[in-house]
Prior knowledge:
By secondary structure, the chain is an alpha/beta fold. The chain folds into two domains: 9-230, Rossmann fold (3-Layer(aba) Sandwich), CATH 3.40.50.720; 232-274, no CATH class. It is built from eight helices and nine strands. The structure holds nicotinamide-adenine-dinucleotide. Residues 13-14, 16-20, 37-40, 43, 61-63, 85-88, 106, 110, 136, 138, 181, 183-184, 186-189, 206 line the site of nicotinamide-adenine-dinucleotide (NAD).
Amino acid sequence: MSVFRSSAHALITGGASGVGYSVAQLCLKHSMRVSIVDFNQSSLDIAGKSLKGEVRLIKADVSSRQDWASIREQVGTDVDFLMLNAGIGGRGTWGDEDYFDKILATNLGGVVNGLNAYVPSFKERDGKGPSAIVITGSKQGITNPPGNAAYNASKAAVKTLAEHLSYDLKDTSIGVHLLVPGWTFTGLSGNTPGSEKAKPEGAWSADQVANYMYAKMQDKKFYIICPDDQVTEETDKKRMLWSVGDIVNERPPLTRWRDEYKEEAEKWMKEQKV
Ligand SMILES: NC(=O)c1ccc[n+]([C@@H]2O[C@H](COP(=O)([O-])OP(=O)(O)OC[C@H]3O[C@@H](n4cnc5c(N)ncnc54)[C@H](O)[C@@H]3O)[C@@H](O)[C@H]2O)c1
């Protein structure tokens, strides 16, 4: 039996747009009850009109503990599938406190708050049917490309949290998964709900990510690293191996993007077998 089953209850943060919205649709296709948490009212309104099935829409900010207390009151604790997915992008640099505060509060704080609000009840309900917790990370939290330190740090941190949670719950029937979308055409990349933009070549749709996640969850995979139409699974594996090679080989960090290492990195990627 899978967590995707009739009358099981899903709670999805950031579920009014993009990946979260597609996962909400997937859950509804399996006749699940779905609670969506999002802080964007216009996206919630659109989702309310377009999603068909048993849906509860909650306007709340995942970075607020108070809001999580209210979410628990409204949703209850009989949640079988928790997807901590709300996230923001944004640009900034050293000295820009607001940039760090905002991104870390949502992308990391939102996950910490959600786990503290729900992991205890997942543990109490263990054995009452399959359950799962998905945390949405990013390749930027693994390979750490330059240009967005706060975002990358937030996503590296949620990867660590998910890994710990997976270990801590290994003797339970609660599945834990780290979902790592590739380049996906969502609100974060200009496809806000209600806009009619065409998907750029190279990006995946949010539905593709949801379907990939579903297949990997059925296979009980913890790491769900999605390719896209530009980056293959093989390329992702090589990029991850090269990154950890910075530590193992005592190179400086982020060498894939440093002029003095670029050529070596490209050659290594061409020759490496994974
Ligand atoms: N789109 C990509 O290419 C991509 C790649 C890697 C990872 N991700 C991750 O996927 C997740 C989903 O993002 P998406 O791409 O579907 O973008 P999206 O903007 O379509 O969806 C994110 C949703 O989260 C909501 N949200 C943001 N901050 C919130 C808060 N504080 N409280 C409540 N809701 C909040 C937004 O209103 C939005 O509806 C994010 O964690 C993002 O970092 C996306």
